[in-house]
Amino acid sequence: MLELDTIIMDYLKPFPTITREDLVYLTIHRPTVTVRLKIINQKLYQLGSHRNGRLDSLVWLLQETLQEHIISDCEFVLFYDDSINDENVALVKGKPMIVATSVADHSFILYPDFTFHVFPEYNIKDHESYCNELVNTIPFHKKIPKLVFRGDMHPHTRPYRTKYIRTDRYYDCQHYDIVCSSGKSFLSRKEKNNYKYYLHLNGRHDNAYSSALKYGLCNSVVFYSAPTMYREFWQHPSIFKEGIHYIHTHNPVELEDKLRYYLTHKREAAQIANNALTFFKTYLWKKSTIKYYIQKLLNEYAKRMTYQPTLEQEDYLLPKYEM
């Protein structure tokens, strides 16, 4: 996976050396939603024993990776909240913190996030099986030629979304179909397969990423993505490209212009949809690919460490997490 190796090196480029002092500093000044982890002799340890759902998902994925790959002894601080912003990382800028969800314009190290897999209400028991259920079975040319948005529209929690959509200009447009993720207008991810075009907007409070983009790529659709500061590990511009895998739209007017363009340039739209599906199959479908990324990232990280991590009294051996 040469492309993944390349983006890993890019994420690690700001950190040619990682010192014990870096980790001590991160431990003292880190945001509250972080954990200090160690891998020693293929076993995973945590400083302290606190747990929550998000951390469980990271532990599960890392333990599975350790069963299949050798990872050099290393020590790292992992951030596992929804987003990075100036406020919650003000004291740790420029430090080698690994970020498990999303990142703005800060130089942190991106790590895969499969948080929703550990919450029963999302009914995601296995990544590949879940993707098999979602994957598109309807040819692009047979789908409904409308743009659909699925998500919470409450004005107090997602003001950016309401600004982007709730205007007379859009409610009356024949090519738009705005739905809700709950109540009578609920639309499942699988039901979204019926549409050709998806609108992707920011996550909760407009300051986090949304997993809808990741899983929507397997539906063979054209994604219109509004501006966002946040991205996951796979959204590196060297492999995930505007105009090839998705359409970037800066504002509602540009969205309408670009939508009308691809409504009349059907062959170009179909090619973008096919590119998105191919991208998903290449980088996001197989759990083996995700595990490869994790082991490669941590092994390259370990090479940059200037010290050998050792076990201390506060280190807690994490038990095997069963999904």
From TrEMBL:
Domain Glycosyl transferase CAP10: 70-308
GO MF terms, alphabetically ordered: transferase activity
SMART domains, per database record: CAP10
A Pfam short name: Glyco_transf_90
The UniProt record lists the keyword NADP: no
Keywords: Transferase
PANTHER family from the UniProt entry: KDEL LYS-ASP-GLU-LEU CONTAINING - RELATED (PTHR12203), PROTEIN O-GLUCOSYLTRANSFERASE 1 (PTHR12203:SF35)
Designated name of the protein: Glycosyl transferase CAP10 domain-containing protein
Native species: viral metagenome
